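Hi all, long-time lurker, first post. I run a small reading group and we've been trying to get comfortable going from sequence to structure in the token notation. Rather than ask abstract questions, I figured I'd post a concrete chain and ask someone more experienced to write out its structure so we can walk through it together at our next meeting. Sequence below, copied exactly:
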Amino acid sequence: MLKKEQQSITLFTVFVLSGIWAGVIFFTYQESQSVKEAFSERRSLYYIAATVFSALLLSYAIYLIRSKKQALLLAEAKEEQEQLLRLYASKLPDPCFIIAEDGTYMDIIGPEDKLFIFTAEQAIGRNLGDFYPPREVQEVLEVIRHTIESGEPQVTEYTPQFPFGGTRCFEVRTSPIDRLVEEKRVAMMVVIDITSRKQALEHIQFMTDHDSVTGLLNRSRFEKELLRLTAPGLPTSLIVFDIHGLRSINNAFGYQAGNDLLLALAHVLKQVGGKHFILGRIGDDELAAILPESDAASLEAYRSAVLAQIELYNQLHPEPALSVLVGQAFSNGTTNPSLLLRTADEAILQQKQALLCRPREQD
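-- Answer (accepted) --
Happy to help. Here is the structure in token form:
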């Protein structure tokens, strides 16, 4: 742009100087007979100046015509590009925002039913800060400026808090636009509501890590949490509750009765335990709890509280009764996590063997 302006100024300067020179010669020729006679022998100089002047004038006229034509072609190309952009954006199922680097909404294209908190008419000409908190506005502006400066598209995720309450998740695809809108640099942002997709992924992740009956962690995730908590070398307690006779209860009362006992025990473990306790179902009839940074006294207190709540449950639901065997282990920060589980399981196994031997002792 500057180069074209410099060329135009140079041509105009030459044109003016040539005109002045030709004018001086012409008026001198008309006003002074003596000068006229003096120049009569050098009349060719006048013709040369006139020829140069005419050539420069013609060149400048051609330059202006070509510049005007190029400007018209450029304007037509930009208009065509803008029409294609609007056509493309109008076909998108999600709204498209043309936003300046200062946060001003320059245009909004697409379905208005997905704009949530404003209409296109309400937003165009106003700023992001009129609708969103400063922190969120700053994040969006940084993406817009980075996109404009780098010329590279950006894909980001936002989880804004709406004024009317509720949270939704959006994927924002920001692309640079190689033109000015009202003398402002702008970017195009296509906003896609991915709340349902995120919820579906979170549900899949939850089902991957949790037991479908109790909602507690499954054994795989439980073992990962046990490894994570014991890795720093901090004291950790583990306690396992085995529902005694669950298979017999399933056979006698049905699987729903067995599931009800699993849910009841899971509820007791949640109710008695702290928020930082890690609970999981590590077997068909076994639920377990990890007590981070606890000592033997804390473990015993938790065990007693759980057994007391189970006794209250059985008073309200006598059949089938919830009977549990308890195995526990304590680590001072040096015990292998797998050894903790093995110690608790061995304690439960010993209790089961004792119960099997009890009728023989009575005989």
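A couple of things your group might point at:
The first strand starts at residue 96 and ends at 100.
DSSP finds eleven helices and nine strands in the chain.
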